[in-house]
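ok trying again, last paste got cut off:
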Amino acid sequence: MQLNHDVVTTTPRPAATVVMLRQAPELQVFMLKRHADSAVLGGAYVFPGGKVDAADADTPPTLFDQPTNQLHQALGEPELTHGQAAGLYVAALREAFEECGVLLAQPSSADVSQQVRASLAQGQSFAQALQTAGVQLQTHRVQPWTRWITSTMPSLTNKRFDTRFFVTALEAQHTAVHDNVEATESLWINPRKALQDYWDGKLYLAPPQIMSLAHLARHASVQSVLDEAASRPPPAVMSAPHTIEGERMMAYPGDPMHPQPQRLIPGPLRMYFRNQRFEPAGGLDELLQDSATG
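nice, full thing came through this time. structure:
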């Protein structure tokens, strides 16, 4: 894991991520291992997601199962237009389909998914492919959860993103698999186990995934995560990087060295770059503090 030292002043690029959950019987989350040659977080385990395409914001409202003003309101970002807000949902649902084959649409079937994939291969946009298949996106299936904004000194890349994290519960008919292009492996894993494997050097994780897994580990069930997401606007989190005695430290909202005095998410308030990775001073115990065990 290579630490970035460059200051990046470009505007963060909009992106969307889908945190897919299931109860089996414990809470599990789906993660993809990015291709080792990827320009961004190669070899890391991430949640499905990617950049917002220009066409995402132009998706006709008839392809949504909810009015765009409801999507806008749920994101809690009044500065966005309704089209921009809807585009974030489209990006999340498009990436879920492109990266792991999960089409959250109605009607949904293997034949419909195959038809949408064939239309995309022929050069149609995601919206055009949906129209060709005669399906409507199930935006109600994804809940805005958190928002992660890359700081002007990114930790592990020289790019900045403004990523909205959505959560969803997968139903039995949906099978998530990696695409063998952008991702080479995938797994369903309990958040506590993922953090343990990270600590043991079995998984490579970037800070937003570490903090998100620590957040998920506070929940014992999928429904608990969904209930929390529905209960409040998504908190916007941006770390504040500092160098202390030659060591990179990232402070999170609520830490005395962060400009936001109020804690916004559970988990560590500080992460240090040690042993070629980011970790809290209290180690694994701090990541799992107050986590659910049932």
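cool. Helices lie at 68-75, 82-100, 110-121, 126-133, 191-199, 207-216, 222-231, 283-288. The mean pLDDT is 92.
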